[in-house]
Recover the amino acids of this structure.
């Protein structure tokens, strides 16, 4: 008997796509839908800086080719792109899309990932800031990056420093304001900071630390940035690199337990039976450290997507972390895995 | 200068202003100097709440066909637009209402069906219309505003165009429409993140003289008036009604008479009567009406009375599909009726040739004292194009009757067996020009004469007229043949000719060796020219909009060679894309 | 069901009269005490129903739109004697209920900001109007000059009674004076509105604490009635080791000290515990006292904090971080001084009653962070023992106590709530006392029905976005800690924001006897607001229940407008070919019996 199940997956990144593939393999008949607010098919987010520089083509950025999608389907999985979730109604097993369409599910996987984090103090100036967090961000800004001469970068996460290297290679003038807490969910110690500054000094002449932006003014050609300590910078573009914040606005208040991300247990199940969450939008309970953490990185997202799908189909698999345990930030080793022996303070936002 | 070649479709429910939005768009674009062609489709029921699609092609280069696939689809109604998505290109742009008053159930929202690669822009059409005018009627204008903002179209010129369109309406109507447009424009400018590449920036087509935005129906009516039509009788039928509607207003102003009869039989009867009386007369109908007129066509032929019938073809047989286009009355136009009954059949190949065809039809009918059938179709009748203002008919074309001279009147033979078959025709009331006229076989004097010798002589005389009619035929449309022979020759007629021509042009660009042939005059047919053309083609393709390949059968009989057929009865006009596809397969 | 059963008796009479006068524009007014009308008002004006004081919100917003700020202020004052105060610090249950904030309708109307605008923008020449009753020669003592005490005193004074307020502190206002920071509520405004109450002949005795300066028995003997409105003053304790350390502040005491001009020690790193307004006030005050790193620490998640979005936003903007899913397990100290705090992690668990979640500690998940000071703002409980131990068990919905002639009002009886609830409680208590002393019910609430011809607003108003409150820059906030952060709407901003109100007090109805069932109105309905119904059941409390819909034409009794979904766009009114849709203005008002 064909199954009447409809699995809806929110998010078209590694977690969502992997979950969809697993579901498809295990259940040939079920209806599966992926919904994403991005218009771009599944792509490699970590390769975006390479794409800006022109090192890789748009096709190389994409995971699947255009021929993989026929009439909106990929491997018999319905792909809805450019469609934003307005809210979830768990009582009626429905998600409401922003364009006012109501979709019924029997199982829901939330894998909405993260969005560029805007620091609370920067909210009034959000419209002046640029980000490199998605394909559409890049498309928006690509031409302007080419034209601009002076850049102001603040925060400074992994992508930020990658971007700085790129600007240096392009011969642009840059100023960098480093926030020690920009590596959310990790904090830098003073030692680490010093090492990083040393490493960056070859890339930019202008590093500001232990200061903060006080005000941003827009003028005809660009911006003027004022810091708390009285530094004033004139710049063409301002980039914010302050990590990612889980993209869960649509889920707050619907009955799902949320904190910084969507709260799930070690099986990636939310407090509602047929709803799971995975990837960087999920705040996962880790029994060994007795705390909730948000994971980062492509490999973690893939593994979590798979665990989500299996558990939704009735298994009881505990998620584990994978991938590199450390990444190299300008010569400083920083732990990527949130899984074991991690300092409590550094977990806090 | 950049080229623009864009097909925009607006899809909505009847009564949502779909068609008027399309009209405003094409008028505006024409005013900006673009070539335009638009073809709207209506629900099959003449009135109702069915699906409407306004289809407009905008280009900096000449347009031969409306284009099968759309670059942009504007959805004013989700339910109808979902099925229309199938004609949106895979990288097309969808503009839809993202804030309808009620939430859609699953899969009932058009954007839900947009495939990856399509770019969709959600505009709160309903909400902005309400904001602008307090009701949702202005959704179509909001959508146009969004379109203008997205593609960087001159806002002020566009609003001017909207003002013109509603110039005769109350100020509040003008304001509501303009405000709705501006709401859509401003909202889109501030809220939409453009990701497509279409832009009218730095596109400045040359405005080439005065343009006429018109369709086949309007053009034939205009041509008939210019060619001094003085009598029209008819009974309304889609898609020919508009001709009668225009003439009902205009003909009396030009000193003519319009008669709405009780049916088509009466209409053709009245036309033949007026023709007998020396007036230029015609009627217009569609398939079902033409069938009723068949008996009288014989009288026109036999009594050698000038008569013109316009048959705007629609989906048939019988009542068929009134609002869809088809080319399935070819056989009826050429061969309906009893006896050996030759007639002239003209089938214009595009909108602008409708004018010339009408003038020619009235001219030939009068000069050769015969029945002329002008074959239009739903597409030609209704598709709108901006064309150069046509040249007025010459005096020769307007006064074509060959009247008897004094010598001939001394012993007046109304049906004199002349060398070219044309007998001098006296208008009743001409002194000495009295004659008998009858549908019975008759002698040169017009008196019934059933002898076998007379019947043969008179039939030959009537057929002889047609030998010289061919020289009146408008120029053939043959695409340039660079080489001695081509791989594929596309032979087409009527409204399919434009698509065939376009397909051949694209094919040649792609490196195929191809050529096209079409003739406005389909009866008598320029057989020698066709044979000369096909002799140089390795393969022959005949695309047409009927099931049985009526013209293909006819042409194959002439050239005595097998031909490749391409037949559609989808109700949509012939598409260059489909012909091209077939050519590639060949 | 008969069609005529759709209406209460009063409304039927009103409608019949209206029919006669339909062609003349005569104002038709009726008063109803029918439960069906009360039910209708409650369901179709959600903001007013959510307001503990039942403020006539659409009424005053309409006045703001007309720029009649004085009239708007008076409309507020009918329900709540402190409009200027509540326009700043109200907990805004109305805005959560506002129909404009429902899914697909946008954002709630800034009801509270508009209330503030009435007070800010009323003309200098504004006159307060009070309908004073003749003196009764009865004397009432009110203990406590917080919102409940003030509201009780005001209403009793209006009714002709002599009132004396006994306030333990030096200044009147209670929690409003000592609990709320000045940057949220300027004291001159508070004192002005208190003065407007006291001007009615109320005697205000400050520095008079019951049990210290005077006893309840003495008051009882000297007065015809006594009202206890002392609120909640006993702070909830953390109940963890280390609570006696120096630099561990109790939230209420901390605010009181700050509000009296004190500068309690906070240090650089401040840990605030608590999820309510007081916690946020403490954290924001700590920032103003020079703290660099201030966090609010909550047991559940931000979603379950008992504060509104504005407060969340302002706190975030001022750099205050919120840490969730943790609860303190121990205060760490050295030499008797706070040095840090040990937290234990928690997880959420479902409960059956609001707020439907509780926090459960996760065993062995403790961790320690450093802190220079800890502020515990866990809320307060009433302390009835201080006043008297004869009050007996207290029923939250009653105002009478165990002692004859002693009444209870506000937080003292309901437990810790908010200012608007206290005001509402005070008003109700005043009515109970009046009835006790005079032996009759002198005032009653009725539904006023008035015919109305138009929607009063174009549909375009529905698409205006919320006007953001003006605030001062961060610099100014830190230079003078008492600077009011929000500066109020300007005249035009208030007018614009007022446009957004749907005016739910206008009731739209289809006359089923005139309707021809053409469904033209359904076609133009912007929401699922016009329904084909087969029945309107009456609930046990005498109000109408939800419509029973049908899609079988055979069963349709009426096409009816569901005023609980209606957004008052007027589309149906414009399109009706029979003119059978009527608009009626419905208001809850107080009249003499």
């Amino acid at each position: 008997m064909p199954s009447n199940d409809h699995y809806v997956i929110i998010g078209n990144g590694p977690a969502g796509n992997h979950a969809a593939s697993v579901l498809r393999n295990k259940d040939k008949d079920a209806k599966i839908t992926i919904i994403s607010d991005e218009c771009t098919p599944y792509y490699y987010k970590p390769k975006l800086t390479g794409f800006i520089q022109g090192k890789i083509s748009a096709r190389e950025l994409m995971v699947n080719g255009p021929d993989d999608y026929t009439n909106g389907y990929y491997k018999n999985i319905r792909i809805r792109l450019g469609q934003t979730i307005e809210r979830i109604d768990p009582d009626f097993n429905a998600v409401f899309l922003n364009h006012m369409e109501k979709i019924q599910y029997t199982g829901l996987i939330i894998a909405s990932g993260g969005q560029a984090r805007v620091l609370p103090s920067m909210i009034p100036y959000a419209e002046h800031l640029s980000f490199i967090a998605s394909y559409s961000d890049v498309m928006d800004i690509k031409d302007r990056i080419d034209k601009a001469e002076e850049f102001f970068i603040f925060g400074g996460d992994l992508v930020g420093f990658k971007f700085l290297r790129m600007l240096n290679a392009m011969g642009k003038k840059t100023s960098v304001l480093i926030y020690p807490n920009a590596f959310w969910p990790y904090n830098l110690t003073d030692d680490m900071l010093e090492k990083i500054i040393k490493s960056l000094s070859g890339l930019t002449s202008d590093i500001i630390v232990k200061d903060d932006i006080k005000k941003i003014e827009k003028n005809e050609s660009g911006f003027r940035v004022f810091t708390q300590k009285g530094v004033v910078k004139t710049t063409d573009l301002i980039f914010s690199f302050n990590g990612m914040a889980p993209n869960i606005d649509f889920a707050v208040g619907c009955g799902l337990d949320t904190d910084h991300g969507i709260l799930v247990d070690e099986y990636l199940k939310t407090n509602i039976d047929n709803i799971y969450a995975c990837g960087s939008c999920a705040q996962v309970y880790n029994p060994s450290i007795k705390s909730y953490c948000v994971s980062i990185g492509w490999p973690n997202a893939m593994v979590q997507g798979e665990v989500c799908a299996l558990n939704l189909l009735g298994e009881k698999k505990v998620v584990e972390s994978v991938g590199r345990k450390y990444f190299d930030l300008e010569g400083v080793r920083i732990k990527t895995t949130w899984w074991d022996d991690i300092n409590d303070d550094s977990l806090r936002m | 200068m950049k080229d623009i070649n864009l097909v925009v479709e607006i899809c909505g429910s009847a009564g949502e202003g779909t068609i008027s939005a399309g009209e405003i768009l094409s008028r505006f674009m024409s005013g900006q100097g673009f070539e335009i062609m638009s073809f709207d489709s209506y629900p099959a029921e003449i009135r109702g709440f069915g699906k409407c699609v306004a289809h407009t092609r905008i280009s900096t280069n000449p347009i031969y066909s409306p284009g099968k696939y759309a670059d942009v689809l504007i959805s004013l109604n989700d339910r109808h637009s979902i099925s229309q998505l199938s004609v949106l290109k895979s990288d097309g742009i969808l503009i839809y209402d993202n804030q309808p008053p009620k939430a859609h159930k699953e899969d009932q929202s058009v954007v839900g069906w947009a495939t990856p690669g399509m770019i969709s822009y959600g505009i709160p059409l309903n909400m902005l219309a309400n904001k602008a005018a307090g009701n949702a009627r202005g959704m179509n204008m909001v959508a146009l505003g969004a379109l203008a903002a997205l593609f960087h179209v001159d806002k002020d010129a566009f609003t001017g165009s909207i003002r013109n369109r509603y110039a005769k309406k109350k100020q509040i109507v003008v304001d509501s429409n303009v405000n709705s447009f501006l709401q859509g424009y401003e909202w889109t400018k501030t809220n939409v993140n453009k990701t497509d590449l279409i832009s009218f920036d730095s596109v400045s087509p040359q405005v080439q003289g005065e343009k006429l935005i018109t369709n086949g129906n309007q053009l034939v009516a205009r041509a008939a008036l210019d060619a001094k039509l003085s009598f029209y009788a008819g009974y309304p039928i889609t898609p020919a009604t508009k001709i009668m509607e225009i003439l009902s207003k205009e003909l009396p102003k030009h000193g003519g008479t319009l008669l709405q009869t009780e049916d088509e039989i009466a209409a053709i009867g009245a036309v033949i009567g007026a023709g007998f009386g020396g007036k230029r007369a015609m009627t217009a109908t569609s398939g079902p009406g033409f069938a009723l007129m068949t008996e009288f066509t014989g009288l026109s032929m036999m009594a050698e009375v000038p008569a013109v019938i316009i048959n705007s073809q629609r989906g048939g047989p019988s009542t068929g599909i009134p609002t869809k286009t088809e080319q399935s009355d070819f056989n009826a136009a050429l061969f309906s009726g009893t006896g050996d009954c030759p007639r002239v059949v003209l089938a214009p190949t595009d909108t602008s040739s409708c004018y010339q065809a009408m003038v020619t039809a009235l001219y030939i009918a009068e000069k050769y004292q015969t029945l002329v059938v002008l074959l239009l179709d739903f597409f030609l009748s209704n598709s709108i194009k901006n064309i150069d203002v046509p040249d007025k008919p010459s005096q020769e074309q307007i006064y074509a009757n060959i009247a008897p001279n004094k010598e001939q009147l001394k012993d007046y033979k109304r049906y004199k067996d002349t060398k070219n078959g044309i007998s001098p025709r006296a208008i009743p009331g001409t002194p000495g020009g009295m004659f008998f006229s009858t549908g019975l076989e008759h002698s040169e004097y017009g008196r019934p004469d059933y002898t076998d010798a007379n019947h043969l002589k008179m039939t030959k005389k009537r057929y002889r007229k047609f030998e010289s009619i061919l020289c009146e035929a408008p120029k053939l449309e043959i695409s340039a043949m660079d080489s001695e022979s081509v791989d594929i020759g596309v032979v087409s007629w009527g409204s399919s000719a434009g698509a065939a021509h376009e397909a051949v042009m694209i094919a040649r660009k792609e490196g195929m060796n191809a050529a096209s042939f079409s003739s406005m005059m389909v009866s008598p047919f320029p057989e020698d020219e066709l044979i000369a053309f096909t002799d140089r083609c390795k393969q022959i393709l005949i695309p047409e909009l009927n099931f049985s390949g009526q013209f293909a059968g006819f042409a194959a009989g002439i050239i005595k060679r097998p031909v490749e057929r391409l037949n559609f009865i989808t109700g949509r006009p012939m598409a260059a894309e489909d012909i091209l596809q077939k050519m590639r397969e060949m | 069901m008969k069609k005529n059963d759709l209406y209460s008796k009063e409304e039927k009479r009103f409608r019949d009269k209206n029919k006669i006068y339909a062609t003349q524009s005569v104002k038709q007014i009726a008063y109803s005490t029918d439960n069906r009308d009360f039910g209708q008002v409650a369901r179709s004006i959600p903001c007013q129903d959510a307001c503990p004081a039942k403020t006539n919100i659409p009424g005053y917003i309409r006045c703001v739109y007309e720029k009649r700020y004085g009239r708007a202020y008076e409309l507020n004052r009918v329900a709540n004697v402190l409009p200027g105060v509540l326009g700043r610090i109200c907990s805004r249950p109305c805005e959560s209920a506002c129909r404009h904030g429902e899914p697909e309708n946008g954002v709630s109307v800034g009801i509270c900001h508009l209330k503030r605008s009435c007070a800010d923008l009323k003309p200098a020449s504004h006159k307060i109007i009070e309908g004073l009753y003749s003196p009764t020669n009865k004397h009432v003592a009110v203990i406590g000059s917080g919102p409940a005490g003030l509201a009780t005193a005001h209403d009793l004074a209006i009714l002709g009674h002599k009132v004396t307020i006994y306030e333990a502190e030096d200044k009147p206002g209670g929690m409003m004076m000592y609990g709320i920071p000045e940057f949220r509520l300027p004291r001159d405004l508070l004192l002005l509105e208190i003065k407007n109450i006291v001007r009615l002949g109320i005697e205000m005795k400050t520095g008079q604490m019951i049990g210290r300066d005077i006893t309840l028995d003495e008051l009882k003997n000297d007065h015809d009635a006594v009202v206890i409105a002392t609120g909640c003053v006993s702070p909830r304790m953390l109940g963890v080791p280390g609570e006696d350390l120096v630099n561990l502040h109790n939230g209420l005491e901390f605010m009181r000290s700050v509000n009296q001009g004190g500068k309690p020690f906070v240090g650089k790193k401040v840990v605030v515990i608590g999820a309510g307004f007081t916690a946020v006030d403490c954290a924001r005050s700590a920032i103003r006292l020079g703290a660099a790193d201030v966090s609010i620490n909550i047991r559940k998640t931000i979603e379950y904090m008992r504060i509104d979005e504005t407060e969340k936003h302002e706190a975030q903007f001022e750099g205050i971080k919120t840490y969730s899913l943790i609860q303190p397990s121990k205060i760490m100290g050295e030499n008797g001084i706070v040095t840090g705090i040990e937290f234990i992690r928690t997880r959420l668990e479902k409960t059956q009653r609001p707020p439907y979640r509780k926090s459960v500690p996760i065993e062995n998940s403790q961790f320690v962070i450093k802190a220079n000071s800890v502020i515990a703002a866990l809320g307060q409980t009433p302390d009835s023992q201080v006043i008297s131990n004869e009050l007996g068990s207290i029923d939250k919905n009653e105002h009478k106590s165990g002692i004859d002639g002693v009444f209870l009002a506000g937080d003292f009886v309901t437990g810790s709530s908010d200012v608007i609830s206290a005001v509402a409680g005070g008003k109700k208590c005043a009515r109970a006392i009046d009835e006790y002393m005079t032996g009759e019910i002198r005032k009653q609430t009725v539904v006023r029905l008035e015919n109305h011809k138009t929607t009063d607003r174009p549909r375009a108003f529905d698409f205006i976005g919320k006007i953001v409150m003006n605030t001062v820059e961060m610099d100014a906030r830190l230079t003078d800690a008492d600077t009011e952060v929000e500066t109020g709407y300007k005249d035009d901003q208030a007018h614009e924001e007022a446009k957004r109100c749907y005016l739910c007090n206008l009731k739209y109805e289809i006359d089923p006897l005139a309707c021809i069932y053409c469904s033209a109105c359904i076609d133009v309905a912007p929401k699922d607001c016009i329904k084909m119904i087969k029945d309107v059941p009456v609930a046990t409390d005498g109000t109408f229940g939800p419509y029973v819909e049908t899609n079988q034409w055979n069963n349709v009794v009426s096409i009816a407008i569901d005023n609980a979904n209606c957004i008052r766009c007027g589309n149906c009114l414009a399109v009706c070919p029979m003119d059978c849709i009527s608009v009626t203005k419905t208001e809850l008002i107080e009249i003499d019996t």
In short: Chain C touches chain A through 23 residues (CB under 8 Å). Residues 237-377 of chain C form a domain with the FAD/NAD(P)-binding domain fold (CATH 3.50.50.60). Residues 419-438 of chain C form the longest helix (20 residues). The mean pLDDT of chain C is 89.
